[in-house]
Amino acid sequence: MSELFDEVDEEVRREQFKKLWDKYSIYFIALMVLIVAAVGGWRGYQYFEAKKAAEAGAAFEKAVELSEQGKHAEAETAFADLATKAPSGYRTLARLRAAAEAASRDPKAAAKLYDDLAADRSVGGEWQDLARIRAAGLLVDSASYADMLQRLEASAAPKSTFRHTARELLALSAWRNNDTTAARKWLDAIAEDGETPPGLRSRAEALAALLPPVAKS
């Protein structure tokens, strides 16, 4: 008797499942199709991005070779082209290299390219900071100390990644603009920072020796 009931229950369950399948099978099939399409799309996207990165890497290497061969105008064009087409990582590197190539023909134009990069928040803080340093390095001989201070004061703060270079540029700019007080301020900051690189420390000491002695009160 129990076996008969089990068979009846099984038949009832099959009938219920068939009704559910007839009612909802289209949705289940559609869901499966969507899942397969999504997985396929993601795989395709990954392949496409990997392909773009490989192509960008090859193009970047060719641009570097042009630079090493002294073909700076061609290298600048190649890097500028990459900066508009390459994936984000290569795009930022290409913008930096394009500015570096431009520096050989027009330092002010190169500084403008670096300034544009420094103003672009999408590239990340350290890249922006590096661009500021590069621009300031090109302008240190011509810019006013006030301009250099505006550019580099934040970069010269304690714990800033490029603080050592920023302080040296500020000290040099102050010295060139006859602001001995500001020059001493940045030279002292260099001297007091235990992480200052030895070479930079030596240059700072040499610059400090060129300053007039502090007047005694």
Automatic annotation (TrEMBL):
GO terms for molecular function: protein-containing complex binding. InterPro entries: SecYEG/CpoB_TPR, YfgM. The chain crosses the membrane at residues 24-42. It is a single-pass membrane protein. It is found in: Cell membrane; Membrane. It comes from the Bacteria. Keywords: Cell membrane, Chaperone, Membrane, Transmembrane, Transmembrane helix. One of its GO terms (cellular component) is plasma membrane. Residues 18-169 form the Ancillary SecYEG translocon subunit/Cell division coordinator CpoB TPR domain. This is Ancillary SecYEG translocon subunit/Cell division coordinator CpoB TPR domain-containing protein. It comes from Bradyrhizobium stylosanthis. The lineage of its organism: Bacteria, Pseudomonadati, Pseudomonadota, Alphaproteobacteria, Hyphomicrobiales.
